[in-house]
Structures are given as C-alpha cells and as structure tokens.
Amino acid sequence: MNTAADSIEKTLGLNSPKKSSLKKYLIIGGVILIIIIAGWGWMSSASSSKIDYMTAQAEIKELTTTVSATGNLEPTNTIDVGIEVSGTITDVLVDYNDRVNAGELLARLDTTRLASRVTSSNAALMRMKANISAAKASLANAQNEHTRVHQMYASTQGNYPSKKEVDEADNALLSAKAALEAAIAQSAQSRAELETDEDNLR
C-alpha cells in the first residue's frame, strides 16, 4: 500500500526536493525584485522633488503698481447747496464744479415779490398799532363807564342803575381789556412777519 502511494507521489513529482527548493528561490527572487522596484521609485521621486536655489546680489530698482478700474467716478463727499426762499433767478454767477468760498454770491433772485411782502407786512404792523390805540381808547371808556355806574349804584343804595346795567359795565370792561391784549398779540405777530420778510429780502 505504501509502495503504491510512493510510486504515485514519485510519478507526480510531489516528493521531489528539487521542486520545493525551486519554489523557495522563486519567492525570494520576487521579494528582492519588489524591493528593487520600490527603491528605484522612491529614488526617482526624491530626485524629482529636489529644490534648486539661485542666489543673486540685492539691487535697488523701481516698483510700478498699476490699478485699472471701470465705472463712473463719484466724490467721497457731496454737499447740496440751496436757498431758504424761492423765487425767480435773474443771474447765476457760478457753474458746476466751480470752487467757491464762504459768503460768495452764487445767484441773484428777483426781489420784486419779496419787497412787496415787506411793504405789506409793514402796513399790517401799522394797522395793528392803530388797533392797539383804538383798544386803549375803548378800555379807557369802559373803565370810566364802569367807575360811573358803580359810583351811582353805591350812592343810590342799589336803586339806580339796575343790576343788569352794572353787570353790563363789568362785562364791557373785561371785553375792552381782552381786546387790548388781542391787539397787542396781533401787533407782535405782524412784527415777526415783517422781520421774516425783511430777512428773506436781505
């Protein structure tokens, strides 16, 4: 039985010491070949990544920087120049982008309407002053009437004049005082309007 198995192994060459040693040499040779290829690849990559340096003497030269852009130019600060009063412009003394100084005359307005307003305001002020004089006269008359009525009422022990006439005299005095105060207030308002119109004219 063993002789038959030995003969089969011999026929197939399984027991051949030469074949097992050949296989071992092939494995060792493959490993060495892989190592050689890996070493060659590493050396080639190391040589390709080598940095070369160049040296030169320092020199002083001009550096020019150019900036280009497209679009519309806009100022960083803008100032709107206007007027406080409206009217018809007769003369314009400056143009766009002119350099001007503080207090410089830029334009002239037609002052016909402004002068007319000053004249009208002045007349209104004079009318209010006349109203004050009239209110003072009315107040003086109301005070006299008030005094006369109360003296008569006291001297007659309340018999004459009637209580209604006394009340009317009191109310007339209060109305005259209120009318004077109103005339004074209207005069102050007219004076303020005149000053405004005069300032606009200037």
What is the gist of this entry?
This protein has 202 residues and is mostly helical. It is 62% helix and 3% strand.
How would you portray this structure in words?
This protein is mainly alpha-helical. About 60% of the residues lie in helices and about 5% in strands. It has four helices and two strands; from the N terminus they run ααββαα. The chain has helices at about 1-10, 15-50, 110-155, 165-200, and strands spanning about 90, 105-110. It has a two-stranded antiparallel ribbon with strand order 1-2. It is elongated and about 175 Å long. The model has no long low-confidence stretch (mean pLDDT about 85).
Task: Give the distance, in angstroms, between the N- and C-terminal Cα atoms.
Answer: 144 Å
Oligomer state equals single chain
In terms of DSSP E residues, the strand content is under 5%
Question: How much helicity do the residues have?
Answer: 55-70%
Low-confidence blocks of residues: none
Number of strands: 2
Essential attributes:
202 residues; 62% helix; elongated; two-stranded antiparallel ribbon
What is the strand and helix layout of this fold?
Elements: H1 2-12, H2 17-48, E1 89-92, E2 107-109, H3 112-155, H4 163-201
Antiparallel strand pairs: 1-2
